[in-house]
User: Which sequence fits this backbone?
C-alpha cells in the first residue's frame, strides 16, 4: 500500500497523473527510441529512486527530473550519525573545532532547490547575522556552481560559511546517506510542502542534476571543543530543525 501511495505522491510532484506508469514509455530525444515502463515487473524491493533511475536510463529527460534518480554512492562508507556527547567527525574539508574558541551550528542541506532546505538556510543565515560569536556552516552536495547559484537566489550567504561536498564525504562521515521512499514521499511531507508553499510562498526551486532529492539532511551543534551538544539526522524530508535550540545548546540565546 505504501509503495503505491508514495509512487502517486512522487508522480504528482513531478507534475504527472497518478496513473502515468500504468502504460508508460519515454522517448529518447537523441534517436527517437521508446522505452516502456511496467511498474509491476522487475524487483519488488526496488525503491522509487530505483524505478525512476531504471526508467530514465539511456533516455534524455528534462534536467529537473534527474534529481529523482538514485544518487551515486558516497566515496566513503556511511558511518553512524554522531550523538550528543560524542566528538564531531572530521574530514579534510571540515575540521571541528576550528581552533578559535567558537562553537558551531551546522546544517546539511537535503539539496539546493528543496523548499525545506531553503527555509532552513534562511533561518541559519538569520541566526548567523545575529550571533557573530558562533560559526554557522551549511553543507551542500550540489556542485559549487549550482550551490552558488542557489545561495544567490535565496538572498546570499552573508555570515554563513557554505561548504561544497559534492562526493558526500562529509555527509557520510556524519551518518547521512540515501533516504527511504517513505522518508521523502510520505503524505505528511507532501502536506507540509503544500502548507509551506501556500502560507509562505516557498515552493522550492529547480533542483540541479548535480543534487539529489534522496540524500538525507541533518543539523548539529558543537561546542568550542568539538563535542556534539545537539542535533541528529533528519527523520523526514520536511523536517525543519529548531536552530534556536541549537544555539541555546552551546550557551547562546
Assistant:
Amino acid at each position: 500500500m505504501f509503495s503505491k501511495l508514495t509512487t502517486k505522491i512522487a508522480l504528482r510532484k513531478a507534475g504527472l497523473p497518478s496513473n502515468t506508469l500504468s502504460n508508460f514509455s519515454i522517448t529518447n530525444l537523441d534517436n527517437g527510441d521508446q522505452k516502456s515502463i511496467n511498474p509491476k515487473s522487475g524487483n519488488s524491493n526496488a525503491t522509487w529512486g530505483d524505478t525512476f533511475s531504471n526508467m530514465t536510463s539511456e533516455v534524455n529527460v528534462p534536467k529537473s527530473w534527474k534529481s529523482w534518480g538514485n544518487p551515486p554512492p558516497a566515496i566513503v562508507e556511511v558511518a553512524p550519525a554522531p550523538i550528543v556527547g560524542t566528538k564531531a567527525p572530521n574530514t579534510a574539508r571540515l575540521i571541528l573545532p576550528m581552533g578559535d574558541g567558537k562553537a558551531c551550528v551546522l546544517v546539511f542541506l537535503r539539496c539546493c532547490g528543496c523548499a525545506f532546505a531553503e527555509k532552513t538556510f534562511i533561518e541559519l543565515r538569520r541566526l548567523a547575522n545575529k550571533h557573530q560569536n558562533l560559526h554557522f556552516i551549511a553543507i551542500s552536495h550540489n556542485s559549487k556552481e549550482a550551490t552558488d547559484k542557489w545561495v544567490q537566489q535565496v538572498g546570499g550567504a552573508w555570515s554563513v560559511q557554505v561548504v561544497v561536498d559534492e562526493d558526500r564525504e562529509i555527509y557520510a562521515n556524519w551518518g547521512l546517506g540515501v533516504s527511504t521512499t517513505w522518508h521523502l514521499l510520505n503524505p505528511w511531507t507532501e502536506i507540509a510542502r503544500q502548507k509551506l508553499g501556500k502560507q509562505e510562498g516557498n515552493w522550492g526551486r529547480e533542483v540541479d542534476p548535480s543534487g539529489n532529492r534522496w540524500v538525507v539532511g541533518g543539523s548539529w551543534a558543537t561546542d568550542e571543543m568539538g563535542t556534539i551538544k545537539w542535533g541528529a539526522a533528519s527523520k523526514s524530508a520536511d523536517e525543519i530543525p529548531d536552530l534556536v535550540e541549537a544555539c541555546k545548546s552551546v550557551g547562546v540565546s
The chain has eight helices and seven strands. Residues 104-249 form a domain with the Glutaredoxin fold (CATH 3.40.30.10).
